[in-house]
Amino acid sequence: MNRTKNLDRALVVGVGLKSEPIKEIKENLSELEELVRACDCEIVGSVTQTLPAWNPSTLIGSGKVEEIKQMINESQAQLIVVDHQLTGVQARNLEQALEVKVLDRNQIILDIFADRAQTFEGKLQVELAQMLDQLPRMVDAWMGSLSRQGGGIGTRGPGETALENDRRRIKDRMGIIRKKLDGVMKNRAQYRSSRKRHEIPSFALIGYTNSGKSSLLNKLTGSQVLSKNQVFATLDPTTRKVFLPDGPPAVVTDTVGFIRKLPTQLIEAFKATLEESSEADVLLHVVDLSSPNMERQIEVVDQLIEEFKWTNKKIIHVYNKVDVAPLERQFKVKGYPRVFVSAMTGQGLDQLKKMMADFILEMQKDVQLYFPKLEEYKIYDLTRDTRIVKREEGSEGTVCYAQMTPQLINRWKDYLVK
Ligand SMILES: Nc1nc2c(ncn2[C@@H]2O[C@H](COP(=O)(O)OP(=O)(O)OP(=O)(O)O)[C@@H](O)[C@H]2O)c(=O)[nH]1
Ligand SMILES: [Mg+2]
Fold it and tell me: To test the ligand 1 pocket, which listed residue (224, 228, 297) has its Cβ within 8 A of the most ligand atoms?
C-alpha cells in the first residue's frame, strides 16, 4: 500500500508544544522534508506552529488550518504531511477542512519502507507494520463519526458491522503474516545457531539511517550491497564474512537504520531483522560525523539501544565520513572505544579492523594442544577453527599453541594440554 502515489506536491507542517525548543522543531521538520522527498514528492511549502496544548480535533489550531488552506491554493499542493502522529479523527477532520490528502510522519516512514521492501520477509514485515498502524486509526475515525452523528455507546448500526468486518479481515491477515514471520525467525535462528556452533564471532552494524552502514559493510567485506544517499536504503539484513588481521574469521551483519520516532509498529514488525543485531557479539555503532544533527542522531540510537536492552553489549563507536566532516566535530563525539573512519576513502579502516580483532581476542584464552602422530591430521581442522600461533613438531607428535573461545576449548578438550 503506497499512499503517496501520484501525489507529487507536498506541503509539510512542523508542530511542537510551546515547551519544545524551536530549533528542535525546525530540525525535525527538515528531516521530515527529507523523508517526504524519499517518497518522490516535491516540497512546495512548509509551515510550523507551536501550541500550548494539542487540539484534539485537528491537532493544530483552527487559524493555522485556515493559513494552510491558503497555502494549498497558492502552491497547488496535493498532500499535507504533519510531523506528529495524527489520530484517525484528526486526520479525517483535517482532510475535510483542507480537501487534500493528509498524512503523518509515521505513515510516510511506513510508505518508504513499503517502497523499499524487496524480499518476501521485508514485504511481510512492512505489511504487518501498516496494519498495526491502520487498525487503531480506523476505530478512532469511526468512533469520531459516530459521536458526530449523535450516536453513542449502545447504538449499533450498519456502520459498526462494516467496521467489525474490516477489523476482522485485517486481524485475520495479521494472524497469517505473524505465522509466516515466525517461520522466518525460526529459520534465521537456525542459521545463527549454526554460526554459534562453529564459534564464528559476529558483529552488527547499527546506526542512524544514511550514516554509511552498508558502505562500511562493503568496504570491510569486499561486498557490493546497495548503498545510496537516501534514507532507509537497506531494509533486509545481510551477513558477510570479514577477514581481520591475525584474527579468526568473523561475520558482519548490516541491517535497517534507525530514525527519530521510529514507528513502534515498525519495531514490532521488524523483530526478525532486529534479532540479527541482538544476537551479535559486538555492535558497531556507525555515526555520520559530517551530519549537523550528529549529536541528536547519537541520542536517538542510544535510546533505541536501551529500548532493545542492548546496553550490556560490547559496542565500538564508529565515526564515519571523516573525509567530509568539519574537524571540530571530532571534539563532540562520545563513547569508547571509538574510531574515525571513511567508508569512502578507506581511512581508519585498518584501525577499525584491529579493534574488531582485539574484541575477538578478548573473548579468547591461550591454550596448548597436543596431537600424537596418528592424529596430526586433525591439525588441519584446528586451522579452520582458530589461528595457530606456534607449532612444535616432535618425534611422537605435535604441540600447537593457539587462542580459543571457551566453546572452542570445549570442542578440543581431548587434545588440551593446558
Ligand atoms: N563522503 C562520504 N560519504 C559516505 C561515507 N560513507 C558513506 N557515504 C555515503 O553516505 C550515503 C549513505 O550510505 P549508506 O551506506 O547507504 O548508508 P546506510 O547507513 O547503509 O543507510 P540506510 O541503509 O539507508 O540506513 C551514501 O551516499 C554513501 O556514498 C564516507 O565515509 N564518506
Ligand atoms: Mg544501508
Answer: 228
pLDDT in tens, 342-374: 999 999 999 999 999 988 888 778 899 999 999
Assess whether the C-beta atom of 324 lies below 6 angstroms from ligand 1: yes
Q: Are 270 and 242 members of one domain?
A: yes
Residue in 215, 297, 322, 342 to alter for ligand 1 test, most ligand atoms within 8 A of Cβ: 215
- From the CA of 227, the nearest ligand is 1
Q: Please report which confidence band the pLDDT of residue 199 belongs to, taking 50, 70 and 90 as the band edges.
A: low
Model pTM score: 0.83
What the block records as the C-alpha cell of 32 is: 521530515
**CA 33 to CA 85: how far, in whole Å?**
16
Q: Residue holding cell 562520545?
A: 334
Euclidean distance between CA atoms 313 and 184, whole angstroms: 25
Domain-terminating residue out of 361, 384, 405: 361
Residue 1 lies in a domain: no
Model confidence over 222-240: pLDDT tens digits? 988 888 888 888 888 899 9
- Identify whether 31 is part of a domain: yes
